[in-house]
Each structure stands twice: as C-alpha cells, then as structure tokens.
Amino acid sequence: MTENCSQNSHKLIEKLRNSTTGIDVEYALASGETSRRIYLDSTASTLQLGVVKDVMEKYLPYYANTHTTVHFNAQLSTREFDWAHNMCLDFVDADSKEYGCFFVGSGATGGLNRIARTLSKKRPERDVVITSIMEHHSNDLPHRKNFKEVVHIPVVMTEDGMGAVDMKAMEAALEKYGERVNYVSITGVSNVTGIVNPIYDVAELAHKQGALMIVDAAQMAAHVPITMSGHDNPMRNLDMIVMSGHKIYTPSSPGVVITRKELFSGVEPDEVGGGMVDDVYTEHYLSTDNFPDREEAGTPNIAGAIALATVLYTLKSIGMDVIDKEETEIVSYAVKELNKIDDVVVYGHTNPDTCQRTGAVSINVRDMHHALTAAILNDYFNIAVRNACFCAHPYVREMVSEDLSDQMEGLTNEELEVLADLHRGMVRASFGIYNTKEDVDALARAMLEIASNKDFYQAQYTKSSGDSYSHNTFEFNSVPLFSAQHAVDNWLAS
After folding, report:
1. Is the CB of residue 127 less than 8 Å from the CB of residue 182?
2. pLDDT at position 423, please?
C-alpha cells in the first residue's frame, strides 16, 4: 500500500471513530465525577458506526419487501438486498460462481445450527465433527446435538501461555477418524483471548481427509482479512464461514452464512415457508433450487442486511489489512501494559511475536472475584467490560485452572473452594475500530489502582444474588437517560 493510501485509510478510521454512535456517552460515577464511557465490550456487541445511521436514514423512506418488483420501492429494496448478498461474498473474497450467502436470525448461532443440521443430512455417513477447546458454545453445541461424536482439539501450551489450536493434535485427530469426519469447525479468533487460529493450515489438513472446513468468523470478520477462495493451493480454501452483524458494527443486523452453494443443494431446506418454493399444492410443495432463496424462507431482515453490507463495504474500502495491523498493535499494547501490573493475570499466550492476538484480552485480579473487578471498572472508572465465562466454559476453566495450579498446593478443601469461587470466570476487555491506545492506558491505570487498593474497593461492595456485586451507596438509574415507554409518551404528548 502506498504512503498516500495508508494515510487516507487512517483518516477514514479516525472519521469512523469520531462518528460512532455513543462514542461520547457520559455517566456519573460512584466517585461523584462524570466522565466519558470507555467501551471495551465489542466482542459481545460492537457500537454502531456513524455511516450505518447515515445510510439507513437515506434508505428507510424507500423500504419495502423484496419478494416483488411490481412497484418502485420493492424494485429499489430488491436491488439493495441483492447488493448486500454480493457485498458479503466480496468482503471475504468468495468467488460468486462457486459461493453464495444467506442471512439468518440469531447471529452466528443461527448459522452454525443450520450448517450442523444440513450437513448431518447431506453427509450422514460422516458422523464426527472436529472442533477445538477454544470454541464459543455456538460452535460446539450445534455439532453435539446433530452428530454422534464431537472431538475437541487442545491448544498449544508454551512458556508464554496457552496459544492457538494444536496443529499436531488436529492432524492426529483427522487421521484417526478419517472418512468419518464430516467437517472441522473452529473459531478464527477466540472470543476469550483474541488469539488468531491458523485457519488455512487447518483447511489444508481437513481437505486431505475429505472433510469440510468451516470457520466461525463471528470475532474474526471485524478485525482480520478473510480469503475464502482463490488460494494458490485450493486445499487452503474455506468451505463455509459464519459471521454475525452485531459484532461488525451493525446492531440489529442478521447473521450470515457464506458457503459453497453445492453443499446446500440436494437437501430439503432446513426452514420452510414463503419465498423458498417454486410451487405449493395441497398434497405437496416444490422447493426452489434458486440460491439463496431456498435458504431464506419468510421475510428477511432486509434493512439489517443492507446496514451490514454498508459496514462491510466501508471496511473493505479502508482495507482490512490496515485495520488488522492497527488493532493487533492495540491488543499487543494492552497485553504488554497489563502484564506489567502485579496481581493482574493476563490469560493466553502473551508473546505477540509468536502468537497473534486481536480484539480481546481477558484478565483477573488475584484474590478478587471477576464480577467485582468488572463492577469497579464500571462504577469508578467508566470502563465497560464483560465478565464470567463468555459462553466458552471449557476453555475458560482450563486457562483458569492452569493459572491457579501453583497456588493450590497445601490448601485445605475449604480454601480450595474459596479460591475456585473467586476465579470461576474472567474479566474481558475487548476492542473495536473506535478504540485507541489511550483507552488501553485508561484500563491499565484502573487495573493498577484496583490491584493496589483491593481492601478499599472490596469494602465498598456487597455480594448480591449469584455472581454480582452491588455498591453500598451508589446506584445507577437508567430511566432518566432512556426509556422507550417514556420516549413514546413524550412523542404522543408533543
């Protein structure tokens, strides 16, 4: 990339940051101060980019359903909905002659359930799925429900911590189960640690055994370039990926399945209804062969799909290689700064030279419950993070157990139980295109303050039901800031 192109890309990133919906939200804190909220929960859901708001305001006057072109609005919406499909393919470099995409509800979860059900029927003789210990439940439970056996590959263990998926174990599992393996399905980027997996290397191994390669790109798509087809070695092409629009700066947008079209042909569509048939009789119906129509029964989330395509087009125009480089630097900086703090544990491989991380960092303060740490970050520092196990229970348990192993020696059963209760989860700080190194600095200062003054902060809170903590004197009331019912009442009264 030329210097001028690079400078222009960085200007566009800055424009996106400054126009992000909610980037300047302020809250009053337990300290009595008011400050700008620092949003570090993008792995759960990203904030909306300003370009989405602008495009939707321009589109919605022309909104209509897409299953007819008899009137002007329907013609316009149909064209834009088709553009949304094509943009998804273009974003991941999927050849439109071989690949297609369809939109689903429930984000990546809906897509992975659809894939598991379809491929269990398409290739019933292959009754094994290989995945990894790193997976979000959405890339684990659908396979368990629909297949006889699911194999969980471990991650590499090094002196720098737990890293990416273990390729030797992956190869051994593929050789062991051979023609029984229907597909390998792994995350491109861990939603817990932000560790990037070698998905193209895994694809090559899978294809040697006749297995398909599926990538859960829910965390990957917003941060790292994806190339589904066109590799010099076609064995490194990907068969399917799933994405989730609400994790790509587009709240209320659908999930996406991008697939080789032939993998869904010859199988009864998983969902039936309007739009996926050629004809219907009282005795039977004829499913259409048209793709993606056969996979999009009912009225799709048209506006959400167009909004998502708007973001994909924007990110592609900036250059995912530029975004990848900048966000990897921010996460590496976060790992380095947080690793300096005594009594703060950083989970996962911590050497960026040997293991790329992007998007997220999970941490804990020793001898402090993860929910309490998250509450303090919110109430005193206006830093929005997430805590617990992030729908990746086996992976989180394994990392926490590894960290605690040195502390367990000589403890009584009661002491072990207390230690385990404190660390049945983590605090996750996750980043988006709108975050900066200054946000990392704010997080590091806050964690240093918390770790250095545990007794003070613990005295300010009472453990309430479950794993939550309530401040003894400070309470946040969201109603004056926003209530949908009050907003409607005000509109009706105006």
Report:
1. yes
2. 62
